[in-house]
Amino acid sequence: MLFNSFEFLLFFPLVIMLYFSMPYRYRWVLLLVASYYFYMSWKPEYAILLLISTLVDYFAANQMAAKPDKKSRRPYLILSMVSNLGLLFSFKYFNFFRDNWNPLMDQLGLFAHLPELQVLLPVGISFYTFQTMSYTIDVYKGEMKPEKHLGIFAVYVTFFPQLVAGPIERAPHLLPQFRQNFDFDYARVREGLILMLWGFFKKLIIADRIAEYVNGIYDAPQVKEGLTNLVASYLFAFQIYCDFSGYSDIAVGASLIMGYRLMKNFERPYFADSIQNFWKRWHISLSTWFRDYLYIPLGGNRTVKWRWWYNLFITFLISGLWHGASWTFIIWGGLHGALLVIGLWTTSLREGFMRVTGLARLPKLRRVVEMFVVFHLVIIGWVFFRAENLGDALLVFRSFVQIRPSAVGPLLDSLQSFGWLEFVIALGAIGTMEFLHFLQERGWSLHQKVGALSMPLRWGLYLVATMAIVLFGKFSSQAEFIYFQF
Amino acid sequence: MAGRFIVRVLAFVVLVGLVSAGIFFGIPNNQKAYLAALQDKQARLDSLQASGKPKMVLIGGSNVAFGLNSSKLEQAFGLPVVNMATHAGLRYEYMIKQVSAYPRPGDVYLIFPEFSQMYEPLSVGTPILYQSLEVFPQGYAYCNQDGLLGPVKLRANAFVEIIQLKVKRSLGRAMGMTEKNAYQRSVFDHYGDIWTPMTLKSRYKQDDKHMEKDRGTLPEEDFVRLTNDFAQLAKAKGATVLFLFPVVAEAKWDAEVGRVTQEYLKEKLTLPIVNNPAEYVYANDLFFDTKYHTTQQGREIRTDQTIRDLQGFLPAP
Question: A186 contacts in B (CB within 8 Å)?
Answer without folding.
Answer: 1, 4-5
